[in-house]
UniProtKB/TrEMBL annotation:
<dbReference type="GO" id="GO:1990961">
    <property type="term" value="P:xenobiotic detoxification by transmembrane export across the plasma membrane"/>
</dbReference>
<protein>
    <recommendedName>
        <fullName>Guanidinium exporter</fullName>
    </recommendedName>
</protein>
<feature type="transmembrane region" description="Helical">
    <location>
        <begin position="33"/>
        <end position="52"/>
    </location>
</feature>
<keyword id="KW-1003">Cell membrane</keyword>
<dbReference type="InterPro" id="IPR045324">
    <property type="entry name" value="Small_multidrug_res"/>
</dbReference>
<feature type="transmembrane region" description="Helical">
    <location>
        <begin position="84"/>
        <end position="103"/>
    </location>
</feature>
<feature type="transmembrane region" description="Helical">
    <location>
        <begin position="59"/>
        <end position="78"/>
    </location>
</feature>
<dbReference type="InterPro" id="IPR000390">
    <property type="entry name" value="Small_drug/metabolite_transptr"/>
</dbReference>
<keyword id="KW-1133">Transmembrane helix</keyword>
<keyword id="KW-0813">Transport</keyword>
<keyword id="KW-0472">Membrane</keyword>
<dbReference type="GO" id="GO:0005886">
    <property type="term" value="C:plasma membrane"/>
</dbReference>
<dbReference type="Pfam" id="PF00893">
    <property type="entry name" value="Multi_Drug_Res"/>
</dbReference>
<keyword id="KW-0812">Transmembrane</keyword>
<dbReference type="GO" id="GO:0022857">
    <property type="term" value="F:transmembrane transporter activity"/>
</dbReference>
<comment type="similarity">
    <text>Belongs to the drug/metabolite transporter (DMT) superfamily. Small multidrug resistance (SMR) (TC 2.A.7.1) family. Gdx/SugE subfamily.</text>
</comment>
<dbReference type="InterPro" id="IPR037185">
    <property type="entry name" value="EmrE-like"/>
</dbReference>
Length: 106
């Protein structure tokens, strides 16, 4: 169950990271409130996952999910480049996440 909670925490990390773009430097009220709310949920879920998972593993997976999701949405929503080298680096992050899951004692 801790892995599911960690995965959802990572999705909320993606939500707040993308939300930052829409806040326009925290000058827009609703995007700012959305970003702060998703940030709080993400941190709370990470904290719950840490009850059962090792800190280093959980944090690396959480940030990895956030990194991959944010990079993917950057390509889709903001026309950021989707070049082969960039996609290969993102794939390496995914491989690291999967490796940490497979090698984790929990």
């Amino acid at each position: 169950m801790a892995w599911v909670v960690l995965f959802v925490a990572g999705l909320f990390e993606v939500a707040w990271a993308v939300g930052l773009k829409f806040t326009d430097g925290f000058t827009r009220l609703w995007p700012t409130l959305w970003t702060l709310a998703t940030m709080a949920v993400s941190f709370a879920l990470l904290g719950l996952a840490l009850r059962a998972l090792p800190l280093g593993t959980a944090y690396a997976v959480w940030t990895g999910i956030g990194t991959v999701g944010t990079a993917a949405l950057g390509m889709v929503l903001f026309d950021e480049p989707a070049e082969a080298g960039r996609l290969a680096c993102i794939a390496a992050i995914v491989a690291g996440i999967v490796g940490l899951k497979l090698l984790s004692p929990s």
